[in-house]
Amino acid sequence: MALRRAAQRLQGVAASLTRREMGLDATRIAVASSLRGVPHRESPAPRAHQRRGMSHRPEDTVYGGPRPSEPRMTLKRLRAKYDAGERISVVTAYDYPSAVHVDMAGIDVALVGDSAAMVVHGHDTTLPITLDEMLSHCKAVSRGATRPLLVGDLPFGSYEQSSAQAIDAATRMLKEGGMDAVKLEGGSPSRVQTAKALVDSGIAVMGHVGLTPQSISVLGGFRPQGRSFETAAQVVERAMELERAGCFAIVIECVPRTVAAAVTAAVSVPTIGIGAGDATSGQVLVYHDLLGFMQHPHHAKVTPKFCKQYANVGEVITGALERFKTEVEGGEFPGMSYSPYRVSDEDSNRLVRLLEQKGLDAAAEAVLDLRYREDGGK
């Protein structure tokens, strides 16, 4: 205790001397400035330390470059939001434009889902999409979204054989795709083992229980899960196993609200519901579904009942394309308003003479006719 008190006194003396020396330095500067007839200016106060949001992008890290306008969502910030009882928003993104919109909306997590197989590639299930195709989507999204946490789905066939295969695929997701984390489906013992191997390798993992679309060949289709005592208990137990494996969050898909509430209360990590009611820590929807992006018979069959449509973008797009077609066929577009490039009169005359010399009278006449109309018929 005596040594500690002595050390504290020494620190106090040192601080006092430092302040005194700083005061003397300021006095010297003021005196020197007055002798030279230069008014003394106070030194600017030191700037407060600015926190940077960590990212896989060099320009967003401590090594230099511009600071993001808003801090990037990280696992730590996501956990803080969960601990504060705030709801977490998740939306899928598949390309640069969708990533930009998700980013601008302030969504917490952008999920590059294997649902791209259905809403982008036009397949009936998520099974056909490959790891290389998913990486292409991930790269585009990582260029467009600078603020959300980026999570990439490990596609079917990229992680089932062994933990080593899963680690290789997930590593590519992070290194090549620019993702912050990966998501895998299912909570069977083999999936839990894979999740733990990924976490032990330093890769953040989001789990997924309930309806797991990659298992539809076993489930018999896109069917809700957890509607019996046995299956409900299994959903809860598998979610707990995934938490024990180190998953930072768990998606709960297509289960009754009561089952989702049980899972959310049983685990201490965020739960993200989709078709699972309102008792989860957050919600996720597919970009195309919530925007009403595609309105055609095939898509209408697979649009889930639980999805609220926040816009009718599909009708807007179709209407715009129809107007374009009508204006093209009617000669209204592009017109003078959207024909911005011009040739000087001198060069235009030289072109007409050249065309006439080459015997291209029709071409020369076309140039003269267009100039006549551009000049208002003069």
Which characteristics define this entry?
single chain, 378 residues, alpha/beta, TIM Barrel, 2 domains, 8-stranded parallel β-barrel, 15 helices, 8 strands, 48% helix
Q: Could you walk me through the main structural features you see in this protein, from its secondary elements to its overall organization?
A:
The protein has 2 domains: 66-310, Phosphoenolpyruvate-binding domains (TIM Barrel), CATH 3.20.20; 342-378, no CATH class. It is 48% helix and 10% strand. The chain is built from 15 helices and 8 strands. The longest helix is centred in the first third of the chain and has 35 residues, at 2-36. The radius of gyration is 31 Å and the shape is elongated. It is an enzyme of class 2 (transferase).
Question: In the CATH hierarchy, what is the class of the largest domain?
Answer: Alpha Beta
Distance between the termini: 102 Å
Instruction: Give the strand content.
Output: 5-15%
Order of helices and strands: HHEHEHHEHEHEHHEHEEHHHHH
> Which regions are unreliable across 5 or more consecutive residues at pLDDT < 50?
1-7, 12-62
| Secondary structure tally: strands | 8
CATH topology of the largest domain: TIM Barrel
Radius of gyration: 31 Å
Overall tally of domains: 2
Q: Which geometry do the CA atoms define?
A: elongated
Percent in helix: 40-55%
State the CATH superfamily name of the largest domain.
Phosphoenolpyruvate-binding domains
Known CATH architecture of the largest domain: Alpha-Beta Barrel
Largest sheet descriptor:
8 strands, parallel, barrel
Oligomer: single chain
Mean pLDDT: 85
The spatial strand order of the largest sheet comes to 1-2-3-4-5-6-7-8
InterPro entries: Pantoate_hydroxy_MeTrfase, Pyrv/PenolPyrv_kinase-like_dom, Pyrv_kinase-like_dom_sf
GO molecular function: 3-methyl-2-oxobutanoate hydroxymethyltransferase activity; magnesium ion binding
Pathway: Cofactor biosynthesis; (R)-pantothenate biosynthesis; (R)-pantoate from 3-methyl-2-oxobutanoate: step 1/2
EC number: 2.1.2.11
